[in-house]
Amino acid sequence: MTRINLAIPPAKLTDKHLLAEHREIIRIPNCVSKGRYNMKNQPLEFTLGTGHVKFFYDKLKYLKNRYESIYTECKNRGFNVTYFGNAWDGTPWSMWNDYTPNNRDYEILKNRLVQKDPIYLGIL
Fold this sequence. Notes:
There is one protein chain. This protein is mainly α. It has a single domain, classed as T4 endonuclease V (Endonuclease V, Orthogonal Bundle). It contains 5 helices and no strands. It is globular, with a radius of gyration of 14 Å. 26% of the residues are buried. The mean pLDDT is 95.
């Protein structure tokens, strides 16, 4: 599983989800830089489950910006985390697209987070 809590501000994530996203988000640029990705059947819209990672293969600019926000929030909370921003080095520029999350994306993730941890009921 690779967690990308798209549309959820890092400051609103629990420590557990923040640290997991910091650790897991770099899987996508690592796959792309090694050529271990396939764009066939890439979802046109954000999804969870099958296609979740594939959706982000060509949205590396969004992921890089998201990573920087995640990393900054980790440091703000006093976590001793390693900087993995260089995971995007060597990825093809053709895959460096941005993305703007929409209300649908937010609702999908909000519902998933509340399902996983009811503490989010009062946060999101």
